[in-house]
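Long-time lurker. I teach an intro course on protein structure, and each term I like to show students one example going from raw sequence to a predicted 3D structure in token notation. This year I'd like something fresh instead of my usual example. Would anyone be willing to generate the tokens for the chain below so I can use it in lecture? Attribution to the forum is fine with me.
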Amino acid sequence: MTTVIRIIVLALTVVFSSVNAQDFQGVATYKTQRKIDIKMDSTQMNSEMHTKMMEMMKKQFQKTFQLTFNKEASLYKEDVALDKPQAAMRGEFQIVMVGNGGGSDVLYKNTKDNRYADQKDTMGKIFLVKDEFKKIDWKLEAETKYIGEYQCYKATYTKQVEVFNNTGFSMDSDDKKEDKKPVMEERTVTAWYTPQIPVNNGPAMYQGLPGLILEVHDGKLTIICSKIVLNPEDRVKIEEPIKGKEVNQEKYDEIMDKKNKEMMERYAPRKGRKGEGISITIGG
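-- Reply from a regular --
Happy to contribute to a lecture. Here you go:
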């Protein structure tokens, strides 16, 4: 480990000396995807509907983001394709993602001051989540690999996450409601960062390493950098968002939990109408 750290320090020394300009800036493009494991009641949904739902769910979790950064701050925003919206046909279904702002969400991070401002469009209401970063206890590993032209180093950390074993929910009014409590599970998060780009930043809420994070594996979530432009000709201003009702992270999480429960109740079928709902089980 000592040898690895020495190599990193030497690499950082060389890189910092070559990109020490005050106006250093970059734009990194990231692709995200999440594995999904959904089981549905075959008596309520045929194979064609199941295939359509899987495709829709998969598309929801395949997105492109851009991280505009300098040495002290960054903006992380979804790169949204302007597709023409399509209305659902009779008898079909739509998937509504609570908290999905349709690409209008903006995450501002200030790594120098250890804080962030996350502007979120939650079901038509704008929130501005302001808080400090939680410390990530990264462990620098010896393993290295190349991502494109950049030599990357591996880093990991472990965290406790809440999971539901064989989690499921049913929108059939006659189903018995069961209180399923989550269990705590230890998860190892893996990141690959490059000291060739000397910023302690990365996609989403991942940061705190001696170089830009280019790849993340966090449970079923994968984030991979597909393109980097350093010091682009068209300069992009990194401005902290100011719109929205200001709350801290804990308060926003409480609001989201309430919104999720309201959404489930809203779309649940009325009592006595058995069979009109769809039972979904998500594994892992």
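Some talking points for your students: Helices lie at 2-18, 47-60, 249-267. The first strand starts at residue 26 and ends at 34.
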